[in-house]
Amino acid sequence: MPEIDCSKNIEKKQWNENLSRCKNPSFFSLYEWGEFKSDRWTPLRLSFSKNSKFIGCTQILMKKKFGTKFGWASGGINYTDSKYLKEIIDNIQEKFKGIFNIRFNFTETLSGRLSFNISQIKPLKKAISSINSGFTIISDLKSAPDFLSTMSKNNRYYYKKSLKEGLRFEAEEELRPGSFIQLHNEMVQLKNIKDIKCSLGEIERLKKFLEGGVKQYSVFHQEKRISTCLILQTKNTAFYYLAATNEKGRDLFASFFMVFNLLNSLKSQDVKYFDFGGITPYKESAKGVNRFKIGFGGEIKKSLGEFDLSPFNWSRKVFNTVLSP
After folding, report:
1. Structural domains in the chain?
2. Given a cut of 70, is residue 222 above it in pLDDT?
3. Which of 18, 84, 132, 241 has the highest count of CB atoms within 10 angstroms of its CB?
């Protein structure tokens, strides 16, 4: 059997070209995302080939803590065919001998066959406690004839109320970190949700490293920005990354106005899919967010989820703590 060849730290253009050839590309596997995260993690990019043919890649963000090497691959393992998964994982395990824990977040939609196949890969173990819920909402922008008709009765009601408030939607020409953080801080204070951490430096790094890959969309009232969101955007897919609405925006139902117009704006840009980001059935506090997101009519999807590559249960148990800022 031909051996898998592994190359490290491929240059940016080649890396992203290889990623685009995979069946399950992820924004979080992009070269730029690794550079954005490089202030706290060390990006390790592994590219795999067989018989000189590219078969997959993974971007692992590495960190050393408690004397142990930890790795977080938020984009999972990207492959040209899932049949290569076991060989790729075996190769990774061979290269990471010693004390380590690598967490792979497989974002592709859960299916019986994929779940069955990955369960047979013995080195991988289902995460004891996952970082993400694994649930998201995907809207097929091309097949949606009218976003208003796909909305829930509740969301449609508040969207129509927002139309009476003189709001203006804008796809901004550039990301404005200061404006986003100002609204974000107002929202955190309003809702008293201190666990949502975001800094000016983080947004400035987004702008620096992701270049045109992150876009800002906002809603204005009397020329004052009252709601805004940051979208991670590729040619085919847009991911709802961060959003903020202040008290005035909340009173005028600006979030409903913003998302409705965002969907139409993305469709006009020929973006195929909109990923509304995580929802969770596990937290009582998430019910409002779940209802808001589900109310725009996308399809709820469950991902394959998070798996650990580690010889030690103790390192798997502390991984979530390591990932925290």
Report:
1. 4-134+303-323 (3.40.630.30), 142-271 (3.40.630.30)
2. yes
3. 18
